């Protein structure tokens, strides 16, 4: 295990917090190990289903009293890890839970880079619930540019946003890398980023991974920009809070039906949300395990003896970020439903 924080948790650190961080890694590892069997097989539903089963099974062993705030959807659409489901052992701290057993199901189906399993945990009542809002316009940066991210930037021209981030990071625009989802709605932004002289990292899916890269210093990504999932925004906010970065978001309905549902739910589409609005606590935990190889994490590797995984786990209160390389024996893979398909 490699600790990248330079912070040795000792003295007055809370042992239960350290234990919980490692329990969460086991949860994302289980989901990744189950999903990775489906990498490149073209069946994203099967891969996601395997990860959901494995994640739910492992969550049941975690020592907390959790409620899923960001899950697989409403109960009538998602029989497991649905919004409002009780998870955990029922003992210990009362928490909100945000899960995405496979972030990037299309990436998984194609065997493409940066499919990950992710999980965020925060004190009960601190996570914002997006309700019927599926899409959000986002900006995410790391600690070095957090002071540059003022609410007006969400409406600013692309060049203005890039200038603000580049100035904060004290680097020329040509050295700036921006993560953008490769969607038709972003073609204008992508062209504007390139016209300004910055680089673009494109992925068809996976804006939690993009936000995590943008918020983590040294990842090679300086900024996430564009419209992605609203539930993914809440999950990403857990990582942003833990890493000391900054985030802005605003609901961006993509259909008249979504816009009407948002209005009926009493949500304000004009409100600019920060990471503090999405997760109102610094006592957050975030874990991610690579499913396929990517810029962020190495994917699952199967061996004669079992499998290996690479994960990140973060604890907001201490600011600790750990990279966890793990070996898993074959009999353990069978226990979590990650045996050969």
> Count of DSSP E strands?
15
First-last Cα distance: 29 Å
Which shape, going by the Cα principal axes? globular
Summed over residues and divided by their number, the pLDDT gives a mean of: 91
Detailed description of the structure:
The protein has 341 residues and is α+β, with helices and mostly antiparallel strands. The protein folds into two domains: 2-125 and 283-335, Fructose-1,6-Bisphosphatase, Chain A, domain 1 (2-Layer Sandwich), CATH 3.30.540.10; 135-278, D-Maltodextrin-Binding Protein, domain 2 (3-Layer(aba) Sandwich). 32% of the residues lie in helices and 26% in strands. It has ten helices and 15 strands. The chain has helices at residues 15-36, 44-59, 105-110, 158-169, 187-196, 207-215, 230-243, 256-264, 275-278, 330-335, and strands spanning 2-3, 65-70, 86-87, 94-103, 116-123, 135-141, 177-181, 199-203, 223-229, 246-251, 273-274, 285-290, 301-302, 306-315, 320-329. Strands 1, 2, 3, 4, 5, 12, 13, 14 and 15 form a nine-stranded mixed sheet that branches. The chain has a six-stranded mixed sheet with strand order 8-7-9-6-10-11, sandwiched between helices. A hairpin with a 3-residue loop joins strand 13 and strand 14. Helix 1 runs antiparallel to helix 2 and helix 6 packs parallel to helix 7. The longest helix is centred in the N-terminal third of the chain and has 22 residues, at 15-36. It is globular. The two termini are 29 Å apart. The relative contact order is 0.18.
């Amino acid at each position: 295990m490699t600790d990248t924080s330079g912070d040795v948790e000792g003295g007055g650190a809370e042992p239960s917090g350290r234990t919980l961080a490692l329990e969460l890694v086991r949860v994302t590892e289980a989901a990744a190990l189950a999903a990775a069997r489906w990498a490149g097989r073209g069946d994203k539903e099967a891969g996601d289903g395997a990860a959901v089963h494995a994640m739910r099974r492992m969550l049941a062993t975690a020592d907390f009293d959790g409620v899923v705030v960001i899950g697989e959807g409403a109960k009538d659409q998602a029989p497991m890890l649905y919004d409002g489901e009780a998870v955990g052992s029922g003992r210990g701290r009362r928490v909100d839970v945000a899960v995405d057993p496979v972030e990037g199901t299309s990436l998984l189906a194609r065997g493409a880079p940066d499919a990950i399993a992710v999980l965020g945990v925060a004190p009960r009542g601190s996570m914002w619930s997006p309700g019927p809002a599926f899409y959000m316009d986002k900006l995410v940066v790391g600690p070095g540019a957090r002071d540059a991210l003022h609410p007006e930037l969400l409406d600013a021209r692309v060049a203005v946003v890039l200038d603000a981030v580049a100035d904060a990071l004290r680097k020329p625009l040509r050295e700036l890398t921006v993560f953008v989802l490769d969607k038709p709605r972003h073609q204008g932004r992508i062209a504007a980023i390139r016209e300004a002289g910055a680089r673009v990292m494109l992925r068809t899916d996976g804006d939690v991974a993009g936000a995590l890269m943008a918020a983590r210093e040294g990842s090679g990504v300086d900024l996430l920009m564009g419209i992605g999932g609203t539930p993914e925004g809440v999950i990403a906010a857990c990582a942003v809070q833990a890493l000391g970065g900054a985030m802005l978001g605003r609901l961006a309905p993509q259909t008249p039906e979504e816009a009407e549902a948002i209005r009926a739910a009493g949500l304000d589409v004009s409100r600019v949300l920060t990471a503090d609005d999405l997760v109102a606590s610094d006592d957050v935990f975030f874990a991610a395990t690579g499913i396929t190889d990517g810029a962020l994490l190495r994917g699952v590797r199967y061996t004669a003896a079992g499998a290996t995984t690479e994960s990140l786990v973060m604890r907001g209160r201490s600011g600790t970020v750990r990279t966890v390389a793990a070996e898993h024996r074959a009999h353990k893979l069978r226990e979590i439903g990650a045996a050969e398909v």
